[in-house]
Write a structure and sequence with these properties.
This is DUF3040 domain-containing protein. Keywords: Membrane, Transmembrane, Transmembrane helix. The protein is built from 4 helices and no strands. The longest helix has 20 residues. The chain folds into 2 domains: about 35 residues, no CATH class; about 40 residues. Helix 1 crosses helix 2 and helix 3 runs antiparallel to helix 4. With about 90 residues, the chain is mainly α.
C-alpha cells in the first residue's frame, strides 16, 4: 500500500535519529551540525599524531619509528573515508 507523505517523513525522521542523533537534534533546533560522515576531527588528530611520530623517527633516525609513523598515517587516512562504516562487498564473480 502506498504510504502517505506524513508517514514517509516520520520514517525518515526516525532513521535520522537512529543513525546520527546529534545531527537530528541539531536539525530540530534549527542549527544543524555536519552529518557524521563529514566530521573529521578524529581523523585530523590521528593524522597529526602520525606525522609527529614520523618526524620524530626521521630526526632520531629510527627505522621502526618511521615505519610506525607511516602505518599510523595510513590508518588516519582511512578515517577520512565517509563510506568506512558501511560493509564493503567484493563484486560478484561471473
Amino acid at each position: 500500500m502506498p504510504q502517505s507523505d506524513d508517514e514517509l517523513l516520520v520514517a525518515l525522521q526516525a532513521r535520522f535519529e537512529r543513525d546520527d542523533p546529534r545531527f537530528a537534534r541539531a536539525m530540530s533546533a534549527g542549527r544543524p551540525f555536519q552529518p557524521r560522515e563529514y566530521r573529521h576531527t578524529r581523523a585530523w588528530w590521528s593524522l597529526a599524531v602520525a606525522l609527529a611520530v614520523l618526524v620524530a623517527g626521521v630526526v632520531v633516525a629510527d627505522g621502526l619509528l618511521i615505519a610506525t609513523g607511516l602505518v599510523l598515517a595510513g590508518m588516519a587516512a582511512q578515517l577520512f573515508d565517509p563510506q568506512r562504516s558501511r560493509g564493503r562487498r567484493c563484486p560478484p564473480r561471473r
